[in-house]
Amino acid sequence: MLTRWVAVGVLLTMSCAVMAQLGDEDTTTNVLFRYTNDKGNLVVEQSIPPAAAAGGYEIITEQGRVLKKVPKALQGEDAVKYAERLRREAQLAEWDAKLKRRYSSIKDIEAAKKRALSELSGNLGILRSNLSGVVSRLEEQQRLAGVKERNAQKIPQTVLDNIASLESERVEVIRQIATRENELAQRAKTFDRDIERFRVILGETPAP
Questions:
Q1: Which CATH number is 104-202's, of 1.10.600, 1.10.287, 1.10.443, 1.10.260?
Q2: Which of 71, 87, 93, 181 is 20 to 30 Å from the Cα of 52, by its Cα?
Q3: How confident is the model at residue 188 (pLDDT cuts 50, 70, 90)?
Q4: pTM score over 0.70
């Protein structure tokens, strides 16, 4: 039992380290609108209604840093389209700035991608190894229960408890594996997007 919890602790420690690295390397930026609604309340959202777009607003980062202050301008739907274009331009500018601060070449991004995906793959390897161990212990407990049943004997409560506990653990580890596999795929896509955007920055490909 002690070995099991030590293994879980090691896994959680590694998982936290990986997630911290992912957060640090995520170069995408969520750019938001900040405006005053018709009730006089300050609102921060990813989209902006026509009245607010016409009445003036700020484009900010998630941390509250103002990227652009837009005064009263166009009316109706045109104002919304204009605001969204400004938001997109600010988002791209923030993305470009982060990429240029972090990397000096495409090779730098590819190396970072390799490191990050290697970390996640290692984490997945630990989870799969844990799953194999859980399944082996579960099968052993099920075998013991089967022997008792064939001999028309009562299955010990400890065996039944072990089977229930191991089955729950198996389901949880499978869930964690699926989560990590999704993280691995999404992280690869993020790096690929960064590479394509850096090509635009370098002038190798035209802006979309």
A1: 1.10.287
A2: 93
A3: very high
A4: no
